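wait is this the right file?? whatever heres the structure
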């Protein structure tokens, strides 16, 4: 039977896709249905029908799966942020483990790997230390803030995101209140007019320090004193600033910061290491899980204090500084110059003198240093972006022959592709840990330990 758009049918959800969507079959025809979970029987409406598969929208759950959970957030379906809120946390972790092991098997050809551990959160809510809220007007003309609805730029009003910290709500209320009273216009993407584009909030989990940065289409705000006054008495408030972004694009932050009150940064810790975080700094968004993830990387590196370690794609040096506590010398490589400035400053702040940082592409810096300077490594740690490691990085690592390679990955498909190259002859996979940095969302991080084979 041929299916077409707007057909309504009943299906059983039997599988889950990479983006967390449910998958079911109607007479052999595969349908992807967002917001359903394995075990649901659901009435769905076909939105897009291709020859061999289609996308359908959930109309109603006829018989819920025993793993289905009522989402805690009232706008979970409309908001583009969480994909797995409908699934019990236990099953979310299983989904993530299977995703990593499945990719290692299918793409990498590693058939006998078990997860050494799956690192979940005790409380998988309110874990994000950073939030960026777009500001706009509702259909009724009220100033609102919230989140973009999935794949669009229309704002779903919400000041109480359950992934963020609770104080955000109070801060947002006060900012909207200031905007209403002082007649401050929200930015309108369509016309490029109006002033306030986004509100950036950051929170130090260990220090309780709060940062507010208002991103504006201009270089000043009216009644600045009233804005500061509305915020500065909130307990923990440490830094209030403006960020100038007058460009008509989708990038949230501009380059210029105008400090208004307090410090220009907040301070936070991951483990024993202290970080100064400014509005433009990169910083991991889930500090609790970051500590566990990098702790696992450190454990896998098995350092005794004598090792030379390279940390490729080092960002602001979070892993490098973690490793430096237990290694003889650490070298970090990162492509973004301000991130390296942060890394150097953080090293100094923590009185770590055995970490050195280089700006450049890992695929250029590493081969060059190896061929021209004959650098060596006992351990190499990589934490690449989603596209994984460049071929030149993999080949140079193979030539350098470190005893151990620790691969931290945010995309298990490219992890599997790269491990296949590394493990063709010289290395073998010793351990894989799966770490949930983004509960309720589909992304998953993993750490993999490779040992050099002894011939
Ligand atoms: N471990 C880091 C985060 C790594 S995220 C931290 O905790 O800060 C991946 C990093 O790789 C990003 O900082 C990105 O800027 C950097 N990057 C991307 N492509 C790169 C390349 N070709 N060479 C070096 N670094 C790169």
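ok assuming it is, sequence goes like this
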């Amino acid at each position: 039977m041929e299916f077409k758009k707007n057909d309504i049918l009943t299906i059983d959800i039997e599988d889950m896709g990479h983006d967390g969507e449910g998958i079911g079959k109607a007479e052999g025809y595969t349908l992807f249905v967002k917001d359903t979970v394995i075990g649901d029987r659901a009435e769905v409406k076909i939105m897009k029908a291709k020859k061999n598969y289609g996308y359908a929208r959930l109309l109603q759950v006829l018989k819920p799966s025993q793993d289905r959970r009522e989402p805690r957030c009232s706008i979970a379906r409309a908001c583009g942020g969480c994909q797995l809120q409908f699934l019990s946390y236990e099953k979310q972790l299983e989904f993530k483990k299977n995703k990593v092991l499945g990719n290692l098997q299918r793409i990498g050809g590693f058939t006998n790997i078990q997860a050494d551990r799956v690192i979940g959160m005790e409380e998988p809510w309110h874990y994000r230390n950073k939030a960026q809220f777009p500001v706009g007007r509702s259909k009724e003309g009220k100033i609102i803030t919230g989140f973009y609805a999935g794949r669009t730029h229309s704002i779903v009003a919400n000041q109480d995101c359950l992934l963020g910290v609770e104080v955000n709500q109070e801060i947002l209320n006060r900012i909207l209140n200031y905007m209403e009273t002082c007649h401050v216009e929200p930015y309108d993407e369509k016309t490029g007019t109006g002033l306030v584009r986004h509100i950036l909030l950051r929170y130090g989990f260990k220090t309780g320090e709060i940062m507010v940065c208002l991103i504006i289409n201009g270089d000043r705000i009216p009644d600045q004193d009233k804005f500061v006054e509305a915020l500065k008495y909130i307990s923990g408030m440490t830094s209030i600033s403006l960020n100038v972004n007058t460009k008509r694009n989708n990038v949230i932050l501009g380059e210029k910061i105008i400090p208004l009150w307090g410090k220009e940064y907040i301070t936070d810790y991951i483990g024993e290491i202290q970080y100064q975080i400014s509005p433009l700094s990169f910083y991991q968004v889930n500090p609790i899980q970051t500590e566990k993830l990098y702790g696992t990387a450190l454990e896998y590196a098995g350092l005794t204090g004598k090792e030379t370690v390279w940390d490729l794609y080092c960002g602001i040096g979070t892993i490098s500084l973690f490793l430096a506590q237990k290694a003889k010398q650490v070298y970090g490589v990162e492509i973004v110059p301000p991130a390296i400035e942060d890394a150097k400053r953080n090293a100094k702040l923590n009185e770590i003198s055995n970490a050195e940082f280089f700006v450049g592409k890992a695929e250029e810096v590493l081969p060059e240093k190896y061929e021209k300077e004959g650098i060596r490594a006992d351990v190499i740690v990589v934490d690449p972006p989603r596209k994984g490691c460049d071929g030149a990085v993999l080949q140079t690592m193979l030539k350098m022959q470190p005893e151990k390679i620790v691969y931290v990955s945010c995309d298990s498909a490219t992890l599997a592709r790269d491990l296949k190259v590394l493990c063709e002859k010289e290395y073998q996979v010793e351990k894989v840990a799966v770490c949930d940095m983004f509960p309720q969302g589909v992304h998953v991080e993993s750490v993999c330990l490779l040992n050099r084979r002894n011939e």
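The chain has three domains: 8-63, 97-122+286-452, 130-270. so i think its the right one actually
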